[in-house]
Sequence to fold (288 residues):
Amino acid sequence: MWEYPGFDPVALQLGPLAIRWYGLTYLVGIGGAWWLARRRADQPGAVVTGPQVDDLVFYIALGVILGGRLGYMLLYGFDQLLANPLNLLRIWEGGMSFHGGLLGVILACILYARKIGAHFMDLTDFIAPMVPVGLGAGRIGNFINGELWGKPTDGPFGMLVRTAGLPPESAWNVEGICRQFNVVPCEIRLYPTQLLEAALEGVALFTILWLFSSRRRPRFAVSGLFLLCYGVFRFGVEFLRLPDAHLGYLAFGWLTMGQVLTLPMVLGGIALLAYAYRNGGQPAGQRA
Fold:
């Protein structure tokens, strides 16, 4: 039987400064994406040069952090935002929305494409294979924080989670689940959907996109495949995840906010792929 080890969310305490694992996973994700982008920029026909990658990653990192946090507070934590607007700044406690971060990345790409005179979709096709590195790292951060658990299960894939001995920041997430299902004492087996998402949105999605983009593809194709695969993976995992307690299921006793926000990604991905390969597809643009 798996048992949640109960990580301390703080990796290193330096006096009043707490360095948290959640923040470190974001650094790993951004650093890994930067390294891979640098490798791709050295290949013939890349839309950006190596030095331009450094600026692009800075733009994207800001888009991810600002868009992800603002999106989370507006979509999932609006009551907390109204109660205390400073909650918007408490990124170290977790709470980032992928869909908000995606909009932030899109805006960053629009601004940077305009700056260097590149086609916006050439930039998104270029960065799409690197995005899963950050997604996978972020899901590991969720697991360390003890948040975003799946539903209770008696099956072999359930992980036993005990609040006894957990740091308070991790325990309150599980305590809420125990109250919801009337489990006393608070020892419950849950799907570790954070790890499942790390495997699908991180490892599997990276492998698919990296191999697909290793050959030159029509403009829109890589971005379309990213939207399609991520959307399918996320939509499926939502069936195992517990919805946010203050939102619950939106309809049919199973539809979650994550699925509502993800379905347009699936449809958009299909549309982009169809457009990319219409009449044989239009080649991606060259470096500015």
Notes: The mean pLDDT is 88. The first helix runs from residue 21 to 41. The chain has one domain: 2-280. The CA atoms of residues 118 and 288 lie 6 Å apart.
